[in-house]
Specification:
Elements: E1 4-13, E2 15-17, E3 23-25, E4 31-39, H1 42-49, E5 55-63, E6 72-75, E7 78-87, E8 92-99
Antiparallel strand pairs: 1-4, 1-6, 2-3, 4-5, 5-8, 6-7, 7-8
């Protein structure tokens, strides 16, 4: 179980539709929600690395209704991909995120 290390805010970025049902992240927009920041466990890091991922943080964004299946977030001025979304026993949504490189971070 992860322990909260600090409170912050995260911007959930909506997916924008493209032609033929393909989705991409919109250049602007999104909604900002409060979150509790947690460390990713070593076991989860090692497991994800087996599949080519490097999880950085777990963000608890409160009640699961706050999450609309966004696939990317802006957090502390950087863009991250959502690797995993998980509903906890107390109906909070936890997002495990990893850094996205070369995706227009200057706009953050």
């Amino acid at each position: 179980m992860s322990t909260t290390i600090r409170s912050s805010e995260v911007t959930l970025i909506p997916a924008a539709p493209k032609a033929r049902g393909v989705y991409e992240t919109g250049p602007h927009g999104g909604r900002t929600v409060p979150c509790d920041v947690k460390n990713v466990s070593r076991a989860e890091v090692y497991e994800a690395m087996n599949y080519g991922h490097e999880p950085r943080w777990i963000l608890d964004i409160g009640h699961y209704d706050n999450y609309g299946e966004e696939t990317e977030v802006f957090f502390e001025g950087k863009r991250y991909a959502v690797l995993r979304a998980y509903i906890t026993k107390d109906l909070h949504m936890e997002l495990t995120i990893e850094r996205v490189i070369n995706r227009g971070d200057a706009v953050c």
